[in-house]
Protein 1
Amino acid sequence: MSCIQTKSLRNTVFYKKQERVALRNCGYIDPEKIEQYIGVDGYQALGMVLTDGSFTPEKVIEIVKASGLRGRGGGGFSTGMKWHLARTIIPDADQKYVCCNADEGDPGAFMDRSVLEGDPHALIEAMTIAGYAIGANQGYIYLRAEYPLAVKRLEIAIGQAKEYGLLGKNIFESGFDFDLEIRLGAGAFVCGEETALMVSIEGNRGEPNPRPPFPAEKGLFGKPTILNNVETYANIPRIILKGSDWFTTMGTEKSKGTKVFALGGKINNTGLVEIPMGMTLREVVYDVGGGIPNGKKFKAAQTGGPSGGCISDKNIDIEIDYDNLISIGSMMGSGGLIVMDEDNCMVDMAKFFLEFTVEESCGKCTPCRIGTKRLFEMLEKITSGKGEMEDLDEIEQLCRYIKKNSLCGLGQTAPNPVLSMMSNFREEWVSHIKDKKCAAKVCVDLLEYKILADKCVGCSLCKKACPVDAISGEIKQKHVIDQSKCIKCGVCVNTCKKFGAIIKE
Amino acid sequence: MAMKKCSLPFAGTDEQEKALMAIIDKHREIPGALMPVLQQAQEVYGYLPIEVQDIIAREMKVPLSKIYGIVTFYSQFSLNPKGKYKISICLGTACYVKGAGEITKKFQEKLGIESGGVTPDGKFSVEECRCIGACGLAPVIMINDDVYGRLKGTDEEIADILSKY
């Protein structure tokens, strides 16, 4: 038998540059079997914390603080500091809560889904450790109802952990009790905001509240609460087991460890990648991501979803970490990384994200409810060919107003995509306004369908197909489109595939 | 403001009401249980008409206005019945970048309904949905629990998918 030489997965370009911490078990273990999680050192960190007398809650918090772990949900606040505040701000609170934000609503990000479905016990273990650290014995996981498999696997995992005595009363006979409950979200993006999420768990419309008071002082049901997202928690057991020094060997000065990105859009290797902080965007796109399909050119990458911005090709060598992304007008967000090529229109993309925030604005505060709507209308004016140069200044002004005056993170960040797309691709916006042209051929109102006289054979198929009778011409004669009647539906282009005589420009 | 009412008359059965009462009884003592009650009620009825909201308000001792406020706040709750086969077209960023807008139009044209609508025979409903977290397969749609990914959006492909139902 001949020996076929196959490269080990580890040595493919896709995996070689990755470092899997949060995703360490995803795809390796059967998530419905607790034994397999235990077999890869699962629940060891919890056991160590609860049974080794030297691990006081303060020491656990110290380790998390020293690791430099920052919130992976977008904000990037120090996780250890959050825990410290929840432990110390009201030391004699009769009840505290540990919450997990698993309401992954950022379009284009699905790393939390992967952990929930592939390694649910890691989340349970981490939340129990967090409970011990801050002095809470009840936890809530606020999970998207759109992830039915995640719900199922998490339910199985919680059941098994209870059976093994790893959740519930007197865990590891340490006298520490901790219980977990799943609460399902109902499709509201704003519930990713911490105060809105807690209000939603309490059974109300998920509208945010002003901070302070911060949840560490007055959170769920009015009690001190911590909230971290799934990916943040997924790092915790490893940090406890291997120590904060190990964690700080990865990453940049102010952003330690790894970050999972959901590569999507116009890129060859779509999917989840976990890379050490500080890798350049170029490496992510061209090495790990395998470049852009169909020989197209990289135009921009969008990070941070509807709260973030875009990174244009002039910044492609930026080292990805929290602070660098903010410095160029984008943000880490939860880790969606959508690559766009020359066929994507940046005005249209800004409109897309804004449409999302308009719809998801909860309506509680005016700058966000009405401001985003007005902003959206201004963008629509530009994409429909009615824009004027003054609009650009007005858009910028309104953006600043919304950012400054909105109640919560949703409104405060909603203008980011617009500002970032505008500053990075100003020529494109100006061309929409002055020349009434969309170079990417996306904005329908700025396009014209034309019949090429030298290719038209006069078969009349397009004339018959046109729903508004905008095409005229005799059989075997050249046909013409009446632009005043054309509704730009594109049906004619499809009927003329054989001759390719109809183009849009 | 006029109460948004469903266009179809309410046709709940005794069995459904019994199931609803069981759900309510299970949740009476749990803090913040309104959301799970509404979610499970929607599973029983398929949607949350005002009649169902009324029962929940009475039994849970919560004002109807609050229930209505919650139901209309969250996109998952529906005041109208859905089709037997619910077509959800993902409009997350990755799908949008890869042409989900075109695919939505195609489905609407093919079925002759707008987003949020139901075909007259009650078989299909079309809606745009938030990211379903299958960005690696973009553009992606779901019909009930079946996922169709890497769509090209051709007429044949869409006809082919619909013919399975």
Protein 2
Amino acid sequence: MKRLISAALAVVSLLSFASAALAAAPIKIGALFAVTGPASFLGEPERNAAQMVVDEINKAGGIKGRKLELVVYDTGGDATKAVQLANKLIKNDHVVAIVGPSTTGDTMAVIPVVEKAHIPMISCSAGIKITEPVKKYVFKTAQNDTLAVARIYEQLKKERKSKVAILTVSDSFGSSGREQLKSQASRYGIEIVADDTYGPKDPDMTAQLTKIRGSKAQALICWGTNPGPAVIARNAQQLGLKLPLYMSHGVSSKKFIDLAGDAAEGIRLPSGKVLVADLLPKTDKQKGSLLAFVKDYQRHFSAAGDHFGGHAWDAVMLLKGAIERGGDTPDGIRNQLEATRGFAGIGGVFSYSPRDHAGLTKDAFVLVEVKKKDWALVK
Amino acid sequence: MKSDKLKFLVFCLVVFALPLPLSTGYLTNVLIFVGINSMLALGLNLLLGYAGQISLGQAAFFGLGAYGSGVLTTQYAFDPWLSMVLVALVVAGFAFAIGFPVLRLKGHYLAMATLGVGVIAHIAFNETVDLTGGPSGLSGIPNLSIGSFSFDSDLKNYYLVWSFALAVILLSLNLVNSRYGRALRAIHDSEVAARVMGVNARLMKVQVFTLSALISAIAGSLYCHVMTFISPTSFGFNISVELLTMVVIGGLGSVYGSILGALLLTLLPELLRTFQDYDIVVYGLLLVCMTIYLPGGMVRGIPALLRRLVPARSGNA
């Protein structure tokens, strides 16, 4: 008798399994984020935001009745690991698309893998090399450095400042920024009178700043991610450096104001619109997405949503759009991604094309200034 | 002697048969890196385990090999095989030259000096942007190929890398069992005694340092052609420390110990992924436990532990 019951149970459970599988196999999406290591300030909000939006899509019934399944791996910001994990996502987990990686280095390492396997990837890192030249299966959501540099130079030109000093960090973010600052300067009639770098872990930048003080610069542009720029802001204040200080979008989060304290006052930087979502005019196309993202992130993680999380949010939403429009195979998704036009996300309004896999214009950035320990729009 | 040959043959067979059941999985990809790490760990073990000289700068030679091959093949259109040989020779020459002053130092001072070499190399990879691409890395490195046969898949690269690794293992086995190897161990135990016995300790230390740099450079060249992309983060101080951990955990002065150490430290993070956010804690705990309970490394520690456990159990029964 006992045997009969267990056999019956087995049959029933098998049937229910089979029917569940028939109803809708989940669509598997891979994610590579640097959740630990030096780039964890990127990877953690990205993982949070990606998981948050996937959960929400599933709660709302999935995409065409199929749930999404997000497989997240931590690269630790190590290129070798990123390659191994990309292989794992493709060969073991059989994902149809990959979100991430978080850093330009990891992304450049993974590109040959996804190109060979024909798996679409939406990177969350900023380096211009990722999509220039265009690679068939590689897209990105983080704004190009070119656009951020253009935003700063435009403002300087408006204020008739033509001599600048630049101080950039010696990592992939800083060297890419330095390249852009140098190559775009002449277009805006700007001359770089001092060009210095600092190490990502340097505790004091007084030496570089003293040198810059002796130059004829009318403004200082610093390119780096936390905590370096905060140190520079403090050092500049200690030295009584009177130059207007511009930072990159790499520090556009509340963390920077916390780190720099009073020294942050008056510093300007180009930023994605997420920082100033509530200050934007009602006519802004992104305002709806931005407010929803900020509110959601606050509710789930009791922290302010920043644009890093936004990159992952955009990537998952772009994938959702592509799958909805008829692609659930890697190649279908790739083709639909490329056909994306006018998607108003967190990082900007995305329009991909066969010649542009970055998809943003310089409207993606606004120039903000730190006023009374908060962000304000520069008009 | 005969059992040594048999052991090596069995090992070769295992290496060649291993990917057959998992040819499509990503494990083949991980095993490629196990092969590269094995070569690096062996290179360090010859220096540290046999001659007793520490080096915290192995990542420098690994990186020089990788960047040398990468830069020559992408910027100057050199043949990959030719550049591999050239780079290996140049790196070996470089190691030979710095070996004389550096290896005069002992203990902590030697560790500091080699650490310096590693740090300088890492800075050089970062700062020579025009040549190496700087922190954003160097991409577009070609795969190795013989005629029209290109090593463009994981499986092909697995056999390529492990052929080199096996050659290095064979070389090391022969070396440590020779008169030369015995002299190295004599230096390890007492440099003064070795010199009294007529061993040219100073020259031999530099020679084995050079050999270890040569092996690391070849591993670096292979790494860059397998990855087709390199960036300075792969050649930092933490890599030198990881290699040191592989050698110590596997077993100082044991050729197969280094392979075991490389296998464990490369696979362990993959196996621990089930612990999710806590994997790094478990990883650390495991390493601490291993150094406490398996002194002398896994090759000696595991048999010793078994011997201790087995009689204890029979005693209870």
